[in-house]
Amino acid sequence: MRPSAEHFTSSFSSFRSASSWFELYAAFSTFMMLLRTAINELIPIQIRSFIISKFRAYFFSHSSYKASVHITECWEMNRNELYYAAKEYLPTKIIHDFKVLKVGKLEKQNKFSTALDGGQIVEDVFDNIKLTWICSKIDPPSSHLKLKNSNTLAEKNMFVLTFDEKHREKVMESYLPYVLSAYEATKSGKKVLKIHTKFSDMGTIWQASKLNHPATFEKLAMEPELKKAIIDDLDRFLRRKEFYKKVGKAWKRGYMLYGPPGTGKSTLIAAIANYLKFDIYDLELSSVFSNSDLMSAVRNTSNRSILVIEDIDCNKEVLNRSKLNHDPSENAYLRKMARCPDEKFTLSGLLNYIDGLWSTCGEERFIIFTTNHIDKLDPALLRPGRMDMHIHLSFCKAHAFRFLASNYLDIHGHHPLFEEIESLLEEIEVSPATVAEELMRSEDPDVALGGLYNLLKRNKMESGDMEIKEEEKAPRSG
Fold this sequence. Notes:
Its cofactor is Mg(2+). There is one protein chain. The chain is elongated. It has a 7-stranded mixed beta sheet, with helices on one face. A 4-stranded antiparallel beta sheet has the order 1-8-7-6. Strands 2-3 form a two-stranded antiparallel sheet. It starts with a helix and ends in a 5-residue tail after the last helix. It has helices spanning 5-42, 45-59, 81-89, 168-190, 224-238, 241-247, 265-276, 291-299, 328-339, 347-355, 398-409, 418-427, 432-439, 445-473; strands spanning 66-72, 74-75, 78-79, 102-104, 113-115, 121-126, 129-137, 157-164, 194-198, 206-210, 252-258, 279-282, 305-309, 365-371, 389-392. The protein has 14 helices and 15 strands. With 478 residues, the chain is of the alpha/beta class.
C-alpha cells in the first residue's frame, strides 16, 4: 500500500517540531553561557559563594544527613576529660519514662544517683538543636588490648553523639564546651575523693579506692605558723592558673615532707587532699622498673590530683651520689645504670617528670615526697622548682601536745599534769603519734595523762642510761 499525502504531511510536521526544540535548547544553552560569563565577571566570588550557600540551605534544609562524634574513654593514652564530662552530664537528662535505669548510692551521698545503662539512648536539646547520645562498647582486636611496653589497657567505652550535619560548627564550638563547663561546675561539690595505687602485676595502671581519711587542717597537731603557711600556699596555687601560664611554667607544685617516723606526714597529705578536693595517686617506686614505666603511670593520672611518693629515700636511684662511693655494691649498681639507662628507672627520669618536658602532661597537680632522712637524697631532687616547699615535721612539743589533749580528751583549759608533761617533752624526743596513742588508752583524762607522764619519764630515764653507757664506751685520755 502506498503512503498517503496525510502521512507525508504528519512526518514533516514532526520533523519541524523536533527542529524547533533543538533550536530552543541551543538558544537556552547560549543564554546560560552568556549569563555565567556575566556573573563571573560582574559578581565577586565572595558574593557568589554566599548566594550559593543560601540556595543550598534552602533546598537541602530537610536533608536527613547526620554527623556523629565519638568520645572515647582515653585520648592518646591519657584520660579523656570530655568522656567523663559526658558521663556526669547525661544522667541529668534521663527522663521519667525511661524503662531501664541504673541507680546507686555512695556512702557520703544523701540521694540516689542515676547513670546510663549500656546502649541507652539519651536525647538532648541545645539552642533548638536536637542531639542524640548513646553509650557504646569498644571491642578492639586482641592484639591491641595492650599498648607496647605499657600496662595500659586499650579504651573500652565511648559515647557516640549524633546530630544534623548543618549544626556541626555550633556543636563543636558551643555545645561540647557547655557539657565540659557543666561537668566542672558540679565536680567539686559532689566529688568523692579516691586514692589510686599502682600495681605492677595487674593489667590496669591504677586501682582506685575511696579516700575516707578524716584528716583536716583543723585537726592537725601542728604549729599555727606552719599550718597557716601551708594553707596560704595552697590557696595561692589554686588561684594562679593565669600566672603560671603567663610566666611559662607548668601549673604544678612540689612539697617535700621530712622528719622522723610518726610525725604526721601521711596525715598531712590526707588533710591537703581533703582541703583541695584532689584525688591521691600513691606511687610505689618499687613498682616502677623503667623511665617509660614511670611515664606511663604519670600519663594516666588525672588533673586536680596529688602524686605521692612516700619514703623516697628507700630508692637507691635518688640517693646522694657523693655518699655512695664507699659502697662497692652501690657503685656496681650505678655502673649498671649508666650502661643501660633506658631499661631502668633513673633519677633523670624522675626529674624530667617533676620539672622537665613530662611535667606538662597535666595541670593543677601536686607532687609530694616524704622521707625520714632528707640528708640522704640527691640535692638535684630538692632544689626550688622541683620541691617548692620543704616542710619539716618534728617531734611533739608543748603546742602540739595541748592540741592533742584538747582533741582526744576534750581538755580545753588547764590540767595539773600539763606543765610536767611539757617539761619532759622539751627534754626527750617523742613523736605526735606516740603521744596520741597514749592519750587514746583511756577516756578518763587523769588516767590518760598519767599514763603519758609515766611513759615520758621512763623514756627520759632510758635515754639517760644510754648516754651513761655511751660515755663509758668512749676512750679516756691519759
